[in-house]
Specification:
The protein is an alpha+beta fold. It is 38% helix and 10% strand. It has five helices and three strands; from the N terminus they run αβββαααα. Helix 2 (66-76) packs across helix 4 (92-98). The termini are far apart.
Length: 127
């Protein structure tokens, strides 16, 4: 319920732009969200339909290959060398699987700041 408390608080009182991300749960969300890939986003500004052109590794629930999937995600996010040095309590597999694609994050930030890239413009240049 903390997720929904945060969404309601920001939606009711926050004057700036916000985005809240969560992996799609197995249940129907209580507050409607925008679905992009494996994630749900609650925002107070419109999101592009495509946040990233990169294809993430395939998820597989088989416990025997969880380590291989986590390694593939670590390489996908370019954090494989950092995870080898990690000594914390959080599972390395969970860290690798829970990251949001950096390209999607940049797209969201650019959208919030109103940055429009040239490839998104359908008008030809005059000069």
């Amino acid at each position: 319920m903390e997720l929904y408390q945060e969404i309601i608080l920001l939606d009711s009182f926050f004057k700036g732009k916000y985005v809240i991300e969560n992996v799609i749960p197995y249940y129907e969300p209580l507050i409607p969200a925008k679905k992009r890939g494996r994630h749900l986003y609650w925002t107070n500004f419109p999101l592009p339909n495509v946040l990233s052109h990169r294809q993430p590794p395939k998820m597989n629930c088989n416990k025997n290959i969880t380590k291989k999937v986590a390694l593939a995600f670590a390489e996908y996010h370019f954090i494989d060398k950092l995870l080898k040095k990690y000594k914390g309590k959080q599972s390395k597999d969970k860290i690798a699987r829970n990251l949001v694609d950096y390209e999607a994050g940049k797209t969201i930030l650019d959208t919030a700041m109103g940055i429009i890239h040239k490839q998104d413009i359908k008008q030809t240049e005059l000069f």
